[in-house]
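Example 9 (inverse folding). The structure is encoded as follows.
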């Protein structure tokens, strides 16, 4: 399905940059959008909560001053642990954020407010059942968080999940899961997705709000170094084993937590996302830390080359 016109403005690549807890900040979002991809950040990254208004004012102003900038998005976590949801959504409505990305529970109460000003809502899903619930809530697009994605990822292969959802849904789909280069972006489209949803690759950028050790760990790691566990937040996610070891824990012997215990705080003395670093299985293809603009330019060249190579091969 064609990308909605409101989100297709100035897109250099069919990419939505995933909102990453702590890592995604205004500097990164602005650099992403000015490079021609949709930048995003979790509303919870603006702390204290009143800072969110300042962030939205700054992002909107800097993007408005650049006629070639792509749209931006804000992620909202719909969970009882997020006591800021009503406050943060009110600000997003006030500033008419073009795209709201919702996670966990279906955004039934959010969709009408966003649609009222002409915005779009995309929802994270890891299964067909979650997709059906999101569509019942009236979302405008689905984000398929498949095996290998960083952070709170699912376990299904993109070949399976995209195919099953396309049997009953022809709207916009963003696909997530170890997408780190232009070839993978093209592959996402070939599978039937409209966007590639990229997170981990942008941790290793100059603008990302991550300590240098985290960025270097992304560069130094491989897929075998990624651990899938619910221990740190109560919901299954992918994390770098090096950060788990540094916290004095054994990646191979972590207790199990029920998702009702979900927390954006800590597990013992080690805080999820701050000390325990999220990452997807694509880390083994990331070779350096670089400015966001250079990264997007490289992704574009890789994407173009991959497409031309297929055409030359006659496929």
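The amino acid assigned to each position is listed next.
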């Amino acid at each position: 399905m064609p990308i909605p016109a409101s989100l297709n403005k100035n897109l250099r690549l069919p990419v939505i940059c995933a909102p990453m807890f702590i890592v995604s900040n205004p500097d990164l979002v602005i650099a992403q959008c000015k490079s021609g991809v949709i930048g995003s950040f979790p509303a919870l990254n603006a702390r204290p909560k009143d800072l969110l208004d300042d962030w939205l004012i700054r992002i909107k102003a800097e993007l408005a001053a650049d006629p070639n900038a792509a749209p931006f998005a804000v992620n909202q976590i719909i969970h009882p642990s997020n006591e800021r949801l009503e406050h943060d959504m009110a600000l997003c409505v006030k500033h008419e954020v073009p795209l709201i990305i919702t996670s966990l529970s279906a955004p039934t109460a959010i969709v009408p407010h966003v649609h009222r000003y002409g915005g779009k809502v995309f929802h994270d899903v890891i299964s067909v059942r979650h997709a059906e619930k999101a569509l019942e809530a009236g979302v405008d697009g689905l984000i398929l968080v498949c095996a290998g994605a960083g952070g709170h990822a699912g376990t299904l292969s993109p070949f399976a999940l995209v195919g099953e959802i396309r049997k009953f849904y022809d709207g916009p789909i963003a696909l997530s899961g170890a997408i780190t280069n232009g070839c993978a972006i093209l592959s996402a489209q070939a599978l039937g997705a409209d966007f590639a949803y990229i997170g981990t690759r942008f941790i290793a950028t100059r603008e990302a709000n991550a300590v240098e050790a985290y960025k270097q760990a992304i560069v130094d790691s491989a897929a075998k170094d990624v651990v899938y566990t619910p221990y740190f937040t109560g919901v299954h996610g992918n994390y770098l084993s090096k950060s788990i070891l540094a916290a004095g824990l054994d990646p191979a012997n972590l207790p199990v937590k029920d998702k009702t215990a979900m927390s954006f705080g800590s597990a013992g003395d080690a805080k999820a996302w701050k000390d325990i670093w999220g990452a997807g299985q694509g880390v083994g293809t990331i070779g350096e830390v670089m400015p966001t603009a250079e990264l997007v330019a490289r992704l574009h060249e890789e994407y173009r080359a991959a497409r031309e190579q297929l055409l030359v091969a006659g496929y």
